[in-house]
Write the structure tokens for this entry.
Amino acid sequence: MRWIPLVVLGLMGLINLGRGAIHAFAPDGGAGSIAGLDLSTSRETILSLFATLGLAQIAKGVFELYVVARRRDLLGLFLAMQTLDTLLAVANLYLWRPLPVTVPGQPFNLILLAAQALALMIAVRRAPASPAGPTAT
């Protein structure tokens, strides 16, 4: 079970690189071809927002893979950030500003959220206690 947080963060790094590349570099950012969004109005705005999202996902994926490869001491922190990010995305997609169509990321993000929450619980449970900073004497 100790390997689960590492595998989940590694997979999230790869997923973020993949979906980020699609959002940033596909001709329509995946908005029309994958998500089925209508691009007939505000196409430039939608594609710009998708590219911004994609570039942020690529950056996040690079850092997550770095943590997996070199800085495993940051595993809990990065799992917490990814879990919060996914939780907010799910809340937005289902509750706050849902899209007019169901996009592939909606049900997929529910699965990812469950896996991330489980991995985070395992990582936090097994993390050694560390001081929060210098102690007062």
In short: The mean pLDDT is 93. The CA atoms of residues 25 and 51 lie 7 Å apart. The helical segments are 4-25, 43-70, 75-96, 105-126. Residues 4-126 form one domain.
